[in-house]
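Figure 2 data, in text form.
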Amino acid sequence: MNGSIIEHIPVLAETLIEQINLPTDAVMVDATIGHGGHSFLFGKKLSKRGIIVGFDLDNGALRKAETRLEELSCGKILVHSNFSRISDCLGRQEIEKVDFILADLGLCSAQVADEKIGLSFQTNMPLDMRIDKRLKSTAADIVNRENEKDLADLIFKFGQDRASRRIARFIVHERRKEPIATTGQLAEIVCRALGRTRRKRKSRIHPATRTFQALRIAVNNELDNLKKFLDSAPALLKKHGKIAVISYHSLEDRMVKNDFKMNAEAGFYRIITKKPISPSRGEIAQNRRARSAKLRIAEKR
């Protein structure tokens, strides 16, 4: 792929800049910094006394973020860690409270295109899906080792696919012939299970999308990590500090919605976005990966 295709475009960037007005000496946490697109836009408004703390599981992304943020005058601290450990990591930097926490839960295009990660069903690549290579189990381990019931339950729970039992049955049948080792193999099996092909499918969504989502969530413990992150946030925010989360599927969005509601009822948050903010048609036309994004914002009381 050429550079323009895999260039990361920050989602809902203009909306965030409109909604979040940071003091010039703010401490901002970008919990999923990626290539630094969001941080760069906020960092331009910070002085030398401001600080950006960026987390990411992908070392390659952190290197790109470092390059992207070089010209900023504010302080930059980049951490190779899961955002679930945000409290411990900030504590080690002797940072007690912050003005803003941002988490964009999506994948950047470069990660989807990276054969070392193995996330794409559009290109045949090793079936891995680990964003953090320190994790032990790959997607291939799961599809080749889990029993049929557990596999079906996983696809239904994390992928919300009603055909999960049929998909699991086809996977188990095919792996008896040979191990399922690539994304292309798995995508083809799911298409056959659903009786659809790329050419004949009615939906714009690839038949394997939900299965791949389920495996990626399972491999990377995404929902457990999101819960730990959300649980940690209230204690880290200054009074009137804000938290913004961009989610891309209903499982994530429901968790964020419920967490904000619970903290609002407990007196910790004031919810800024009564309904989630979605990208405009213009933004979606420029950046297709933004189409399912939902932004929620809350303020610490």
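Caption note: The CA atoms of residues 103 and 254 lie 15 Å apart.
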